[in-house]
Please model this.
Amino acid sequence: MTDNSGTTGRGGKRRAARPLTPAGLKILETASRLFYEQGIRAVGVEAIAEEAGVTKKTLYDRFGSKEDLIVAYLRARDDLWRDTLERYVEEHDGAPDEKLLATFRALGAWMRERNPRGCAFVNAYVELPADHPGQEVAREQKAWFLAYVKDLAAEAGVADPEALSNQLLILHEGACVADAMRSVDEATERAEQMAAVLVRQSMH
Model:
């Protein structure tokens, strides 16, 4: 995992990434894969340690508890998604309205490459108890994305950035579900087409 400390400019400030030893990085990478593929509650620290090739003591020395490892997993995944999103958006430097639509192209790439089982943050939110710190990470991630899209909408000069960002967030979430469940063909592309209509309407 990379160090993504500093600011993104849009959506607010990123957290400073926690420096990890090689063993810690291996544990986090293994846990991230198992948590996403099998579910957070289904995967125990024994399985993570065994697959990562470390002892349980090493795992606890690096992360303290399974709960802390879950938080680290979600934060690391958030950083990966932000990197993907920002890369696609910044390809459209000269067209503010195109940046809004680029978020859907980013989502399409994310679904193909890293997100075939749907949103990790929604999955975690459902699995974890209400007082688990991972729930707050999931809420923060959605709040950051909403603020990020709102900033893009404001830069594009739309009449009501808040209203448009809410609409586009709903399209993003729906496209993610439809793509993961294969209930709609080309879900992210169709969501982008719908978003284009909303963006055009909001410019008047």
